[in-house]
Amino acid sequence: MNNEKLQEQMEIEEAKRICIQEQFKMKRDEWAKEHKMKCPRCGGIATNEAPNGAGIVEECNFNCYKCGWEEEDKLLSSKEAPKSSLNQRVLSK
User: Fold this and answer.
1) What is the pLDDT along the chain (93 residues), one digit of tens a residue?
2) Could you tell me which of 60, 39, 38 has the C-alpha nearest to residue 49?
3) Total-model pTM
């Protein structure tokens, strides 16, 4: 009887351990999808997290520590700065 309970308890502990490992892997993979990418220049790993002046890690543009590549600002690279209506009137004359 004690052996059966001990065996059952060991199986439960093993199932808990496997569940915790799977949760950890899922969280790690989700983090990697959000904060890592392949560097387009050297093929290394570029991240979008870096320590600020106080040493606290925060998000930034993607950059590669291996070759120094840095992603351009997303707003400027996706759209050019809008031209004011005054500039458009001057250019159209």
Assistant:
1) 688 999 999 999 999 999 999 999 999 999 888 889 999 999 999 998 877 778 788 888 899 989 989 988 654 444 444 444 444 444 444
2) 60
3) 0.55
- For the record, the structure tokens of 52 come out as 């600020």
Q: Residue 71: count other Cβ atoms within 10 Å of its Cβ.
A: 16
Long-range (24+ apart) CB contacts under 8 A made by 75-79 are none
Instruction: Please give the backbone phi and psi of residue 48, each rounded to the nearest 5 degrees, phi first.
Output: -115, 30
How are the residues of the chain apportioned to helix, strand and coil, as percentages rounded to the nearest 5?
Answer: 50, 20, 30
* Residue corresponding to tokens 């070759």: 67
